[in-house]
Amino acid sequence: MADSEALAPGVWPGGSRVAVSLTFDVDAEAGFLGDGAHYARRLTAVSEGRYGVTRGLPRVLAMLAGHDVRATFFVPGYTAELHPDAVAAIVAAGHEIGHHGHMHLRNDLASADEQRAEIERGLAALAAAGAPRPAGYRSPAWELTPETFSLLLEHGFEYDSSCMGDDRPYLESWNGNTIIELPVHWSLDDWPRFGWSIDHGGNVADPAELFHSWHAEFCAARDEERLVVYTMHPEVIGRAYRLAQLEKLIDMMADSGDVWFATLGQVARHVAPTLLGMAR
């Protein structure tokens, strides 16, 4: 992607120097069941996903309400089917709902037909739960394929948030087509720090590391007048001692006085005229 096809600095509303998007992947049980049917027998494992809705999500929503911050929640269709009240709570609080597949299948391990079903079943389930049609998409495990890319365009998604080709909003391209990309990165995700399973092990990091690393990225983004996207999972960040570090970070960012807390949909709409103009 050429440098000219990424967003130049200094473009945020209200004179803000930095845009911050807090995003949450509400995987719940789908985060496990999508990895294989054998998880249907693993009640303990699946219960960890359910914790993200029963305890983590209410904590996250209450914390965001206390700071009057709007966020983007990527919800698999299966989560919406099992927990329509969770979708209703997210929408009622004024947050954005994004598409996150249906059974949280990794696109790179799914056939073209399975990928289509993930998109279309996910859309139907979100609509049935009362969510507005999502403008944005995030691929499970952040893996896009050529088939996924085509499906996003076919179904009219305005932006994607799965790729890592820049740390500014940019146009991701494939086969002559483009989509607005609001990039992510593993270092700005809670899962690599705290995700652990009996099958693969993992990490249980000092929660203060999350604050220090994410604050350092915020300071760099502010200096460069760009966007920073943080990715979290309610079953992970929703543990009270971890959420305390996120709240501390939000307090410090807000104290800077020149941050625009925005949903990804708001960012996409703001940058679209410039980025799409570059593509013409």
Describe the structure.
With 280 residues, the protein is α/β, with parallel strands linked by helices. The chain has one domain: TIM Barrel, CATH 3.20.20. 46% of the residues lie in helices and 15% in strands. It is built from 11 helices and 11 strands. Strands 1, 2, 3, 10 and 11 form a 5-stranded parallel sheet that branches. Strand 4, helix 6 and strand 5 form a beta-alpha-beta unit. Helix 2 packs parallel to helix 10, helix 5 runs parallel beside helix 6 and helix 8 runs parallel beside helix 10. It is globular. The two termini are 15 Å apart. The model has no long low-confidence stretch (mean pLDDT 94).
Features:
4-stranded mixed β-sheet; 11 helices; TIM Barrel; 11 strands; globular; alpha/beta; 280 residues
